[in-house]
């Protein structure tokens, strides 16, 4: 199964018209069982590993993954499973707490781009 089948429905092409409420959190995109999902995940992990090597070799692009959810919603498990096949030296995980007044004065990704003293809060 092509990875684009799973990514395309969640790709944001026009940020101005993006609304999170337009996405169904129960969507499975045709994954009929846990076994089917596990097999698909294994293929995806192998593909991510290959792409990580290419990104590293090119030293030009990067991938930013943002997981936002309530406590105990499975963010850590998602990172553990999805990123399990990647080289950890090529990954960085940053946890952000509640935004400060300064953070609220900027766009959503400001803390990810801000100097490390801001991101480390």
List keywords for this structure.
121 residues; disordered C terminus; globular; 6 helices
The first-to-last residue Cα distance is 40 Å
| Class based on secondary structure composition and strand pairing | mainly alpha
Shape: globular
Report the C-alpha radius of gyration, rounded: 16 Å
Total count of helical runs of at least 4 residues? 6
- How are helices and strands ordered from N to C? HHHHHH
Q: Give the biggest beta sheet.
A: none
Structural domain count: 2
Number of strands: 0
Beta-sheet strand percentage?
under 5%
Helix content: 40-55%
Mean pLDDT: 82
Low-confidence stretches: 117-121
Could you explain the architecture of this structure?
With 121 residues, this protein is mainly alpha-helical. It folds into two domains: 4-90, no CATH class; 96-121, no CATH class. 40% of the residues lie in helices and 0% in strands. It has six helices and no strands. The protein has helices spanning 4-7, 34-58, 75-82, 101-104, 110-113, 116-119.
Question: What secondary-structure arrangement, pairings included, does this model have?
Answer:
Blueprint: H1 4-7, H2 34-58, H3 75-82, H4 101-104, H5 110-113, H6 116-119
Short description:
The chain is mostly helical and 121 residues long. It is built from six helices and no strands. The N and C termini lie far apart (40 Å).
